[in-house]
Amino acid sequence: MLDRAILRKEPDRVRAAAKNKGEPCLIDEWLELDEIRRELLGETETLRRRRNELSKEVSFLKKEGKEADTQILESKETGRRIGAIETELNTVDTDMSQLELRFPNIPDTDVPIGSDETFNRIIESTGEIPSFSFVPRYHWDILGELLDREASGSIAGSNFILLRGWAARLQRVLINWMMDFHSSCGMEEVWMPFVANRESMTATGQIPKLEDDMYHIEKDDLFLVPTGEVPLTNIYRNSKLPEEDLPVKIFGYSPCFRREAGSYGKDTRGLNRVHQFEKVEMVRMVKPENSQAALKEMTGHVGRMLEELNLPYRISLLATGDLSFAAAKCYDFEVWSAGQEKWLEVSSISNFGEFQARRGNIKFKRSGGGKPEFVHTLNGSGLALPRIMAALIENGQTESGKVVLPEVLATRTGTEILG
RNA sequence: GGAGAGGUGGCCGAGUUUGGCUUAAGGCGUACGCCUGCUAAGCGUAUGAGAUUCACGUCUCCGAGGGUUCGAAUCCCUCCCUCUCCGCCA
Q1: What Å value separates CA A225 and C1' B4?
Q2: Is residue A352 a contact partner of residue A383, using CB atoms and an 8 Å limit?
Q3: Which residue is nearest to nucleotide B59 (CA to C1')?
Q4: How long is the CA A60 to C1' B76 vector, in angstroms?
Q5: Is the same domain home to A292 and A390?
Q6: In terms of domains, do A37 and A128 share one?
Q7: Spatial separation of the C-alpha atoms in residues A202 and A366, rounded to whole Å
Q8: pLDDT tier at A151 (50, 70, 90 boundaries)?
Q9: Based on the domain organization, do A290 and A357 belong to the same domain?
Q10: In a domain, A292, yes or no
Q11: Which of A100, A131, A158 delimits the end of a domain?
Q12: pLDDT tens across A41-86, in order?
């Protein structure tokens, strides 16, 4: 959610942001409602003030044992008028809030402007692209029956995955390794619910825009989390943190459920794009002046993870059109997967500024005093499992269809070669 | 799922029986000042959030939403959450 002061004073910025993000923008409707709202608000306040005065008079007169019929009559009439105006005011206010939920966050000034991912700017590329003396295979070919589509299909449906044997084991080892990695870097480990309610989804920005992309449990009006960002950020919804609690640095594992309507077709083979994937997510809440530095720190952190996994990667700064609804700035990490000969997105690290904090009412208070301010929130994947699996398998493959593990995983698995 | 008890400012906690000098007491904490060899104590002052306004101010907020009333923290209804006990269950 954007500051109402910005909507009011700088509608052009809001308009430009929406346009650059490819979102509709109903700012003119909002401004019109805002005028009406302020007018109505003024009227109710005058009337309320009068009613408060009358109430005091009645109270006083009754105590004196005097008549107060005139005052009671006026108060009654005033109450009726307040009621009428309030009904109108509520309608206007609800409409405004609905509109506000649909204004996307304003991208930072250094974000490249462009309609889609072709405008993303690659800012770094690290690691050596592996070469083979044979034709490298796709990970789904190497996995073979360890990626049991028949089983997952009959259990849940297409594009859900079921891993067996060493593939399942590799997934578990990877999750553990990631968790330990973050833990040793001084973040707090969190285990979270994998469903979230409507308020939580609205705070982080999935609702209203992405409601249809989520799995919904109608009976309880709960959603399966599309990312751990939702529970992790909502830990602090409606709270006011003392300054010394910042920065909040937390992480946790969660499965991520995405209906991804209309995503079937190419690029959905194997582990590339599935309805449920595993992810370890990092979330931060920082003081506004520190969010840029935090974003940088988080990208460095993820870079080190990929280096330990020995995966070649590149980082792009997303263009406005590829930036998510709630983000102000975002870096994407992609790893090279040798079989598919493609860059696969494995982590997004975003700064949301105060956008989510405003929606979720997450504030902090400076120890020197002053008004509570909104924190800045950030989050980043560290990392998303399926494509990391794909890249590890494709890059580490041998001619005989085995997989050589990077050292950090070999130590944990107890073997250097899987298969 | 059943029964009971609760939800009041950053925290604790009075007020709900009997609706109206509650404009939410009091305490803790915090900030500033006084005092002090230093610290603590003590004393004094200040201290919730939101909306609106250039400002003074005004209005709203006692878990959420409705209702009754001239007037609701207080009465009525619905819902949510927490705790205790019981039931069921991995």
Answers
A1: 35
A2: no
A3: A45
A4: 27
A5: yes
A6: no
A7: 27
A8: very high
A9: yes
A10: yes
A11: A100
A12: 999 999 998 988 888 888 888 877 777 888 888 998 998 899 889 8
- Answer whether A18's CB lies under 8 Å from A7's CB: no
Measured in angstroms, what separates residue A40's CA from nucleotide B72's C1'? Answer: 24
Interior/surface letters A24-47, b for 16+ CB within 10 angstroms, e for the rest? ebbbeebeebbeebeebeebbeeb
Q: Which residues contact A293 (CB under 8 A, 6 or more apart)?
A: none
pLDDT at residue A145 greater than cutoff 80:
yes
Considering the domain architecture, whether residues A71 and A175 belong to the same structural domain is answered as: no
Give domain status of residue A68, yes or no: yes
pLDDT of residue A370: 75
| pLDDT band of A273, cuts 50, 70, 90 | confident
Note down the domain range covering A242: 117-418
For position A70, what pLDDT does the model report? Answer: 86
Residue at A37 is within a domain: yes
C-beta of residue A36 within 8 angstroms of C-beta of residue A92: yes
- What CATH number should be reported for the domain holding residue A69? 1.10.287.40
Task: Give the neighbor-by-neighbor strand order of the sheet with A373-374.
Answer: A239-242, A362-365, A373-374
Residue A109 in tokens: 């000034």
> How many domains does one find in chain A?
2
| A206 shares a domain with A179 | yes
Residue A406 tokens, joined: 């990077």
Split at pLDDT 50, 70, 90, the class of A399 is very high
Are A121 and A62 a contacting pair, CB within 8 Å? Answer: no
Q: Which nucleotides of B are covered by protein (CB under 7 A)?
A: 10, 20-21, 30-31, 49-53, 57-60, 66, 69-71
Residue A377 has what DSSP assignment?
E
Residues A149 and A206 in one domain: yes
H helix or E strand, kind and range, residue A188: strand A188-191
Within a domain: A106: no
